[in-house]
UniProtKB/TrEMBL annotation:
<comment type="similarity">
    <text>Belongs to the PTPS family. QueD subfamily.</text>
</comment>
<dbReference type="Pfam" id="PF01242">
    <property type="entry name" value="PTPS"/>
</dbReference>
<dbReference type="InterPro" id="IPR007115">
    <property type="entry name" value="6-PTP_synth/QueD"/>
</dbReference>
<dbReference type="GO" id="GO:0070497">
    <property type="term" value="F:6-carboxytetrahydropterin synthase activity"/>
</dbReference>
<feature type="active site" description="Charge relay system">
    <location>
        <position position="125"/>
    </location>
</feature>
<dbReference type="InterPro" id="IPR038418">
    <property type="entry name" value="6-PTP_synth/QueD_sf"/>
</dbReference>
<feature type="binding site">
    <location>
        <position position="42"/>
    </location>
    <ligand>
        <name>Zn(2+)</name>
    </ligand>
</feature>
<keyword id="KW-0862">Zinc</keyword>
<keyword id="KW-0456">Lyase</keyword>
<dbReference type="GO" id="GO:0008616">
    <property type="term" value="P:tRNA queuosine(34) biosynthetic process"/>
</dbReference>
<dbReference type="GO" id="GO:0046872">
    <property type="term" value="F:metal ion binding"/>
</dbReference>
<keyword id="KW-0671">Queuosine biosynthesis</keyword>
<protein>
    <recommendedName>
        <fullName>6-carboxy-5,6,7,8-tetrahydropterin synthase</fullName>
        <ecNumber>4.-.-.-</ecNumber>
    </recommendedName>
</protein>
<feature type="binding site">
    <location>
        <position position="15"/>
    </location>
    <ligand>
        <name>Zn(2+)</name>
    </ligand>
</feature>
<keyword id="KW-0479">Metal-binding</keyword>
<feature type="binding site">
    <location>
        <position position="40"/>
    </location>
    <ligand>
        <name>Zn(2+)</name>
    </ligand>
</feature>
<feature type="active site" description="Charge relay system">
    <location>
        <position position="81"/>
    </location>
</feature>
Length: 136
């Protein structure tokens, strides 16, 4: 019997969508106001789901406190109140779109979750715009 446990979290961060190898005009045409050279910010909401068998001894899939600590260490402490383009090494050469951010977060959390568990990360950039990543 497989069950998914989920933990919600949030962080606030600034970013700019642009490609260094494109002209300002091309970046502006593709990314619009998200290409603002002075950046813009979001109040990101995050849902991390871990799916696996229930441990018959504990009744847990995994301890939700451990999942909470992983999210705090790998995401909140590293992304909250940061400029993703400037302060987060993973985005030095990677455009911090919601799609790229969710994959980076998934990879950071995946390395801390046992291999027998499935992992899904949902990232809300706005209340109406969100992306989901379950791994490759």
């Amino acid at each position: 019997m497989k069950v998914t446990i989920s933990r919600k979290a949030h962080f606030n961060a600034a970013h700019r969508l642009y490609r260094k190898d494109w002209t300002f005009e091309k970046n502006d045409a593709v990314f619009g106001k998200c290409n603002n050279p002075n950046y813009h910010g979001h109040n990101y909401e995050l849902i991390v789901g871990v799916t696996g068998e229930i441990d018959p001894e504990t009744g847990y899939v995994m301890d939700i406190k451990i999942l909470s600590d992983i999210i705090k260490d790998e995401v909140e402490n590293q992304f909250d109140h940061k400029n993703l383009n400037v302060d987060v090494p993973e985005f030095e050469n990677l455009n911090p779109t919601a799609e790229n951010i969710v994959v980076v977060i998934w990879n950071k959390i995946r390395k801390r979750i046992k291999a027998e568990f499935d992992l899904e990360v949902i990232l809300y950039e706005t209340p109406r715009n969100f992306v989901t990543y379950k791994g490759e």
